[in-house]
Design a protein that fits this description.
Spore Coat Polysaccharide Biosynthesis Protein SpsA, Chain A, globular, Trfase_1_rSAM/seldom-assoc, DUF2064 domain-containing protein, Nucleotide-diphossugar_trans
Length: 209
């Protein structure tokens, strides 16, 4: 089993965040918000991250459990519909995010949910922050997190549309699989640099040290 050191994991995570930020910044929206936690001054690729974050409104994460912080991020993003993505699906593109936002804007749709292959979810869009409160009681990082999130939204009366599923990055094997989908990206380059890919490659969250 391949195991990354803390330094190697930080290299991969920073690249994932940078690629995700680029995709979000290129998506048409009234505002782009990052809910950030961690010490940016101690982050890997801190200079690039600071430059990239200049395009965003940056708010601190609030709450204890992950579900609380996710729900708070929806509120802190401001009124109106919000599409939320994490930094562990660096294969997302502006086109994919724009399509998700368009589906959220359709009549008779209150929320959109993008399932992840591991049972979680990669994206959540809600028309109002109140719907995001469904996340507070949902156990995160489990094989049934996506199903529980869907059930919690529907329990609030939300009409939910499912987005296409994506693979997220939880393990070195996940990183290699996702990197193969985005050759030429920062993420693919970082994955190759830490030795997770065999053979040549063609050369966007949370701050990791």
């Amino acid at each position: 089993m391949t195991v990354l050191s803390a330094e190697q994991a930080a290299v991969v995570a920073a690249a994932s965040l940078l690629d995700t930020l680029d995709a979000v910044a290129a998506t048409p929206a009234s505002r782009h918000v990052v809910a950030l936690t961690g010490d940016l001054d101690a982050a890997t690729r801190r200079v690039e991250l600071r430059r990239s974050l200049e395009r965003f409104t940056v708010v601190g994460q609030r709450g204890d459990a992950l579900g609380e912080r996710l729900a708070a991020a929806h509120t802190d993003a401001g009124p109106g519909p919000v599409l939320q993505v994490g930094m562990d699906t660096p294969q997302v593109s502006a086109a994919l995010l724009a399509e998700a936002a368009a589906r959220l804007a359709e009549p008779r749709v209150d929320a959109v949910l993008g399932p992840a292959h591991d049972g979680g979810w990669w994206g959540l869009g809600v028309r109002t922050p109140e719907l995001a409160r469904a996340l507070v009681e949902v156990p995160m990082s489990r094989a049934d997190t996506g199903d529980r999130t869907l059930a919690a939204l529907r329990a609030l009366g939300a009409r939910v549309e499912l987005l296409d599923p994506l693979g997220d990055v939880d393990t070195p094997a996940d990183a290699a699989a996702v990197a193969a989908l985005v050759p030429g990206s920062r993420f693919a380059s970082a994955v190759a640099d830490v030795g997770l890919l065999v053979g040549p490659i063609v050369v966007a969250g949370e701050v990791h040290r």
